[in-house]
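Our consortium's second objective concerns turning raw sequence data into structural hypotheses that experimental partners can test. To show how far this objective has progressed, the report includes one record in full. It was chosen at random from the queue rather than selected for favorable results. The single chain below, 652 residues long, was entered without modification.
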Amino acid sequence: MTGRSFSLQAAIIGFSIRFRGVVIATACLLFFYGLYGLRHASYDVFPEFIPPRVTIQTEAAGFTPEQVETLVSRPMEIALTGLPGIQRVQSTSIQGLSVVNVLFATSTDIYRARQLVGEQMNVVAQQLPAGVHAPTMTPLTSSAGLVLVIGLTSEQQSLMQLRTLTDWSLRPRLLALPGVAGVSVFGGERRSLQIQVHPDQLILHHIGLDDVLAAAQEATGIQGAGFIDTPNQRVVLQSDGQALTPESLARTVIVRSDNGAVTLGSIATVTEAPIPAFGAASIEGKTGIVVNIWEQYGANTMAVTREIEAALTDFRPQLQGQGITLHADLFRPANFITTALGNATRALLLGGFLVVAVIFLFLFDLRTAAICCATIPLAILIALSLLETLGVTLNAMTLGGLAIAIGEVVDDAVIGVENVTRRLRENRLLVQPASTARVVLDACVEVRSAVVYATFAVIIVFLPVIALPGLSGRLFAPLATAYVLAVMASLAAAVTVVPALCAWLLATPGETRREPPLAGWTARAYERLLARLMRHPRFVIGGMILTTLIGFAALPFLESDFIPDFKEGHLIIHMTAAPGTSLEQSLKLGRQVTEKLRQLPEIRSVAQRVGRASLDEDTYGPHTSEFEVDLNQVDGKASRQIDARVRKALDG
């Protein structure tokens, strides 16, 4: 270390000792500011690990998957490929729907990307075939943007009534909440007025389908009626009479002749019926409605969840009055965040307790142990404040980084405090002891270079993790960032706060400090062991090399996984049937799978503990189903056992 940096450290430590009241007060302010930031921090399940992405959906009613691919998806892909910053364009074409995903480079501004895509969409929309709706961009959401999944079932209301209430009452209310980006509704029957034409009546009255379509459009549409000017005012005319019921639509006149008027009801059956369904949903074996609620990009998952649940609580009496059962927690990612926070909190408390116990046993003094332990919450809270400033959410990765940093954040303080207590003990045995402030300064400066070197060595190890490219970097870089910030905060506290606390708490005149018993015993034992090892250096080096080789040889036999198993207790089963499978058959298969899942003893035991085990099945298309099993009270080991039993049951 150069003399300039050494003198700078000495100056910082000397300032902290001289103005220890200011330093301690500042540390207290940072501590309480960190607590305030922790209370108002933004929480999420995972960091934003997917690159900037824009999703475009285009409806093409009546088109086959091949036609959607050729006439809709492919022109969209060709038009979007030339945009700047694009990494990949991929599409999915199913009956009547095209979904195009455009992935941009990591550094791309997502809002600028959406603007560029929107400009190209306006050009492509003019080239699409007749009958294809204009392409639309889905709401901007984060990678883990699904904030809540709820369901509706009823024994009194029909599926059409359920869907109508959801589309026109519940969905607008949810979309109006702050932080909600989109609401997707699956299942139910969408109401429509259908005109089922009788061909023989068309021939009898010499009427074509175009005449029927024109009459229906005119009867169900709204047209302006103009206005009338008077000397004093302008009177706006409003036309009424839009046909909203089958009876009123059936009275619509198509043509008039000498034999009388020909109405829609005379040449067709006009009825209220659902439009052809493209998906279905069931909840615990009962057909109903499943609603997926998505949060806005960068929103606070916990805050949005609370807003949604408050709105559902207000809406529940209205549903109960109509005999509708609301399943408000089919999938709740906030449970995962709460579990992660609880696990991290327990890890922090347990780690802090163990650190306090070890420090007290080795230093054998409450004041020195308190000085060391004060750096743990201070460093963690400062790191949380810095993460919030950088726009990083508190999620499973950042909390994991803070948890593994507990042992490191206290290390810098322990080294400094132990050396200070040793120097104070030696100083009090001198004939002319120096001042406490001088001893603390010299002791802190003496070990500070080693502490700085060790801290930066640890930080350098984590820098490659922060620089990881692609999906791995976006997922694991926040963990390394949280760890590095916590270690840097602990180093800053060791240079400033620890010397100030030592000068304040350890400056007791005339006090004689003895060597801690456990520290003295371990030091003597280590000296004996070290003396023996020094007599056989080749044996030590050979053992180290052998251990390293054994470690490398064991690598191929270790199981590898991209991310570890989380203990959130949520199991998702995705099932794909043969192409062309009908919705009725998909729902039948879903009920069979649900019954098999209910027979598993682990799921039955969970149902007894939490009241019920939520099973909801979404059929997104005629041959694709997804089942979600809510097992929030199951630990990681039990989840793996259930996963194996589910696979075995489904294979049967």
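The partners drew two points from this record. Residues 210 and 216 are 10 Å apart (CA to CA). Residues 606-626, 628-636 have pLDDT under 50 and may be disordered. Both points have been shared with the crystallography group to help prioritize constructs.
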